[in-house]
Design brief:
Elements (H helix, E strand, L loop, with lengths): L2 E5 L4 H12 L3 E6 L7 H11 L5 E5 L5 H11 L3 E4 L8 H4 L1 H21 L4 E7 L23 H20 L3 E6 L2 E2 L8 H10 L4 E3 L6 E2 L2 E2 H12 L23 E6 L5 E2 H12 L5 E3 L15 H7 L7 H16 L2
Parallel strand pairs: 1-2, 1-4, 2-3, 4-5, 5-6, 6-11, 7-10, 8-13
Antiparallel strand pairs: 9-12
């Protein structure tokens, strides 16, 4: 039986990935520190669902806990690792910068060391569309330069990509980085706009809409995301014979290393998303228009040619279908 270690297992993407892997007969060890960045009871509810699988085991630990991470690797001996644990959120990084360097830098180093010391066959790790920062050329391409992050969160994710490449180069550790684009759906993160909007609309409270609603996001439904992640776990990164140090492509390497965008390849206007949400909820939103917030970007738009070529990733869930599925889950879970 294949053995996969998933960090951030009680998180949004981690929860769905573990559900998928366990349903396919994979033995999974989940790690999560269950922090209170958002409602812990939601994380606990996800974990309760996961613990229905006999092939799932769980450790409550932080990535920064070097001894706990080393013990997890030495006891479980994973074939592959999917690192989804991180301190997330752009705006939170403005007020809590040390949480990001602790979890996303120190914690990621512990994962890299665990993979190196225990001969893990493939590390798949979460990056973010936020790394594109001040870039304005769209769609965002993994071969673009991303040296102008506009939030510390983005800077830590770019750092993860660089750290992983160094381990791929020095130790031959196959590493695949995934730049996620606005993932949404049932069991989602309450700090995400669509989730916050839903709560406020259902409570009859006004929603804050930044840049006067003039923003675009490449909303990607969770099931599509999990399809891509699952396929890439088995698509081990290899070196590229076409890589040229005289004109280096950051998405590939002469080391076993790859970067992919994982998004819908179809940016939607924020106001259109709100209209779709209003329709799904059967309630109109009271909107409080505000200026652009520090750290935000105007548009995200993923070029997914590379991941499509690699594993046939081709998202199929429309925003209307995905938002409707989320609204149905929200109503059921919160009994609205």
């Amino acid at each position: 039986m294949q053995k996969i270690l998933v960090t951030g297992a009680a998180g949004f993407i981690g929860f769905h990935l573990v559900q998928r892997l366990c349903s396919k007969g994979v033995e999974v060890l989940g790690i999560d520190n269950m922090n209170d960045y958002y409602d812990v009871s939601l994380k606990e509810a996800r974990l309760t669902e996961l613990q229905k699988h006999n092939s799932f085991k769980f450790i409550n630990a932080s990535l920064e806990d070097e001894s706990a991470i080393e013990d997890a690797f030495s006891d479980f001996k994973p074939d592959a690792v999917v690192n989804l644990a991180a301190q997330a959120g752009v705006r939170y990084s403005l007020d809590n910068p040390r949480a990001y360097t602790s979890s996303n830098i120190v914690g990621f180093l512990n994962i890299l060391e665990g993979c190196r010391q225990h001969a893990v066959k493939h590390l798949v790790f979460a990056s973010s569309s936020s790394v594109y920062g001040a870039n304005t050329k769209v769609p965002f391409d993994v071969s673009d330069n991303v040296d102008h992050p506009i939030s510390l969160y983005a800077a830590t994710k770019k750092s993860n990509e660089l750290m992983a490449h160094s381990y791929a180069h020095l130790y031959g550790l196959p590493c695949t980085g995934l730049r996620f684009f606005t993932v949404y759906g049932p069991w989602g993160r309450p700090d995400m706009a669509y989730f916050k909007f839903t709560k406020k609309i259902m409570n009859g409270e006004p929603i804050d809409v930044y840049n006067n609603g003039d923003m675009k996001r490449d909303f990607t439904y969770i099931d599509d995301i999990i399809d891509g992640v699952e396929r890439l776990i088995g698509h081990t990164a290899t070196s590229s014979s076409g890589w040229n140090g005289a004109s280096p492509d950051p998405a590939i390497s002469n080391a076993p290393y790859r970067l992919y965008n994982i998004g819908h390849n179809n940016p939607e206007n924020l106001m259109d998303m709100i209209g779709t949400l209003e329709k799904a909820l059967g309630k109109k939103a009271e909107i409080n228009m505000l200026p652009m917030q520090p750290g935000d970007v105007y548009e995200t738009y993923a070029n997914i040619d590379a991941i499509n070529d690699a594993v046939g990733f081709d998202p199929t869930i429309s925003l209307e279908e995905g938002i409707t599925k989320f609204a149905d889950w929200y109503s059921s879970y919160y009994k609205t």
